[in-house]
Design brief:
The protein is mainly β. It is built from no helices and 11 strands.
Length: about 130
């Protein structure tokens, strides 16, 4: 059974930093693009960041560019999201996603439909 388990979300103050982790199990995702999306109450799911299978290409949403960094450790089957200079508008549930193993595309997708596996999410709340 494939599982993506996010962790690291919590309540922080504006300007703080936070690192989210997404640990995969059940399959090896070292050959898959992986991504982070987020969804705030009453809003659509928003693309945050994506990384291709060998860490040679990353993409970011405009609202987080320059503040967030996505990375991966294929030996641990884990993807991370380092979030700096957090703002109240970053408050959301953050979801990890992965595509089919073997999808060795150079450019990771910004579209949630480009991912097959999803985690349950972790809540990030940024107070002003």
């Amino acid at each position: 059974q494939v599982q993506l388990v996010e962790s690291g979300g919590r309540l922080v103050q504006a300007g703080d930093s936070l690192r989210l982790s997404c640990a995969a199990s059940g399959r090896t995702f070292s050959s898959s693009p992986m991504a982070w999306f987020r969804q705030a109450p009453g809003k659509e799911r928003e693309f945050v960041a994506a990384i291709n299978w060998n860490d040679s290409n990353t993409k970011y949403g405009d609202s987080v560019k320059g503040r967030f960094t996505i990375s991966r450790d294929n030996a641990k089957n884990t993807v991370y999201l380092q979030m700096n200079s957090l703002k109240p508008e970053d408050t959301a549930v953050y979801y990890c996603a992965a595509d089919w193993p073997g999808t060795r595309t150079f450019i990771p997708s910004r579209n949630p439909n480009g991912y097959v596996y999803w985690g349950q999410g972790t809540q990030v709340t940024v107070s002003s």
